Amino acid sequence: MKIIDLTVSMSDGDPTMPMDPKLSISWHCTLETLGYNLSRVITSTHQGTHIDAPRHFFNKGECIDEVSLERCIVKAVKVDLTAKKPGEAIEIADLNPYAKYIEDGCSVLLHTGWDKQFPKPEFFSAFPYITKELANWFVEKKTGLVGMDMPTPNGVDWKYVHVKMLGAGVLIVEGLANMEQLPDKEPFTFFALPLKLKGRDGSPVRAIAILE
Q: What would the mean pLDDT of 70-75 be, rounded to a whole number?
């Protein structure tokens, strides 16, 4: 088997969504001070490669520690959207060639190549986006998980898309990377394992794919 790392690195001072807390990674102590190295990390639950739980948009929604790991380890298929231009819509027609995989139970990873824009400011504003109609389609198809290399599914109708998908139990993984290493139209096993943060809305993940 071959393991593909789909996770972005996290570095002190990395840019974030405008209203999110800034990422800080610093030394708490070192070999010289206390005899061992130990770091302090201050981050949001939605920094870098991360997963959204329903609690992200529902006060009584499922928390990240309540999401079963079976839903975070799934068969998935990559959707090649690298021809999309900045700010272009991702529509149902773009997913139709992959419908048979989705109907067979595959989750979906949307590959636009947008991860290569990080850390440019436009990474958070000019990305291709999931339309409201496509969000509805994912729900109709009972898609278990939708991952993407954009920072969020939609920069304008962000609330509608999140509420529609998370409200129907469709998990959302944002900020993926390196999807050019994945095969097209060939299912693989996708892992997006969150930290077990009690009562919280999401978590950074170490996302990987295993090709057999």
A: 98
